[in-house]
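Go through this one:
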Amino acid sequence: GKQLIGVGWIDAGAFERRRYMNLVVQKARHPQLQDYIHSSVSGLHPFVQKGLVEKVAVIFSDGDSIPIERFIFRLAVNQSYGSKVEEADLEFSLRSFLIKLSVSGALTKALPQDCRWEITAYFRSLPQASKNTEAWIPTDTKQWQKPPLIIPIKSMSSEPLSVQLYLEHPSLSEPKPL
């Protein structure tokens, strides 16, 4: 699929614990980081609604732009559902999703000092150019040569949205960069 990204650098003090839906979550501390995350997510919203986005990944890469691990959110939106969304049902499903996400840290790898991260959207087909697509650019992050190791984390199905979250690590037989 086609990939478009937004990029950021990792800073251990960039997030702080907050409560959301009566759960402890991590919230960006710096206004610029808050704006980046908010604009990335809200910029994708119309494309997710139209079913154009296949998956969204948060990719952690080393200093050479080689991915270390990827959190993949695979999305499916029921286009025939219309606007009849039961907010309470969706919130209940999202809450259980966030609980599982918060305890998935044990599955992750230790990240190097010069690590960076990016939000990457994989489109089923590229959207037409508009003000919503201006902030997104083709990614230059290197791809793994071998199929990754996949660790399922959580699936959520609450009409009209279904989400599967899984973690990807490079295959043990992945060739090392030269």
